[in-house]
Design a protein that fits this description.
Length: 323
């Protein structure tokens, strides 16, 4: 366990250094000045797309095609300067912003710390907007239905948007990724590039990475962050001044639980019930009750009490009571 006083002193010294550090320069974003080919872009982000497919039920082919199209294969200004790979506008966004000419001059777009956050936010954006809800009733391999549905729901103003997505998917065989199995968590757990600091007089395994650009978000009124490559519950706890046991308890996981990239890590106890107006939620892909707990910001024990007798593993179409 790190000495709290030493840790705080280190953070104070570090945060006032008169240089801009690159702790958020993870491998995916470290070469943002280089232009990528479409093939390179797809190879770089395919694992993230497959992971999001299994987590949210959005075809990996659609995720990749939208990212390619919206970001110009990662070479657009929004992608390079704002890490926004899906052209998502602010829409009540409270985070950083970037302004760019689109349908009108200097429109407000979301700005992210790293490209991965853009992929996670894209999935949350589609999953949480009622106008896209019918898409999640489609088969995961129905990329044509998804492309047509996105256009119909108004994701983009280009009248050829659906055809562009379908053409991109078929020319690059992106539909093959729709049948890929989940990517093992270990495959994502690479250590970010950039400085790694070891505090004096600490054991060798107390190496940790400090980020000063964590974005804290909320679900159901409860604060959380998204895990980045290399994160563990221990490293996040050390970085944010928590005990490891606190974080694992907040997130209803064992103390030795691992973190995959993009997981929600709650920084406080989740709520006992869902927000007013949402009494239940229907699963769109097979998932666990713990997945629902993390997605909705409701304690796992509370979900079990609200849904007596419900198995921990849920099939698609399961109705879960939230209140």
């Amino acid at each position: 366990m790190l000495n709290p006083s030493l840790y705080k002193a280190f953070c104070i010294v570090f945060c006032i250094l008169p240089v801009k550090t690159a702790f958020s320069a993870l491998p995916v974003s470290s070469d943002w000045t280089e232009n990528l080919t479409r093939e390179q872009y797809i190879a770089k982000y395919k694992d993230i797309a497959v992971g999001q497919m299994h987590r949210y039920g959005i075809p990996a082919s659609i995720i990749l095609a939208q990212a390619c199209l919206e970001s110009g294969n990662g070479n657009s200004r929004l992608a390079k300067e704002g890490n926004n790979h899906f052209g998502i506008k602010c829409h009540n966004w409270e985070g950083d912003r970037i302004y760019h000419d689109d349908d009108s001059e200097q429109e407000c777009f979301r700005k992210y710390r790293i490209p991965e956050e853009s992929f996670y936010d894209h999935s949350e954006f589609l999953r949480s907007r009622p106008r896209y809800s019918d898409l999640f009733l489609l088969d995961r391999t129905d990329y044509r239905g998804w492309a047509l549905g996105l256009k119909k729901a108004g994701y983009a103003t280009n009248p050829q948007y659906a055809e562009l997505l379908i053409d991109l998917i078929e020319k690059n065989n992106l539909h093959l990724y729709d049948t890929y199995p989940p990517v093992p968590a270990a495959d994502h757990k690479t250590i970010p590039e950039g400085p790694v600091y070891v505090l004096p007089d600490t054991p060798g395994d107390a190496v940790f990475i400090i980020s000063v650009e964590r974005r804290v978000m909320q679900t159901n009124g409860k604060r959380y962050i998204l895990s980045a490559p290399g994160d563990t519950y221990r490293s996040v706890a050390a970085e944010l001044g928590h005990f490891t046991g606190e974080l694992t308890r907040f997130n209803d996981v064992p103390r030795d639980a691992e973190l995959a990239v993009g997981e929600k890590v709650y920084l406080e106890r989740k709520a006992r019930k869902g927000p007013a107006g949402e009494t239940s939620r229907t699963t769109v892909v097979p998932e666990t009750l713990h997945d629902v707990s993390q997605r909705t910001g409701i304690r796992l024990e509370s979900l079990r009490k609200l849904n007596p007798g419900m198995e921990d593993r849920l099939g698609a179409g399961t109705v879960v009571r939230l209140r």
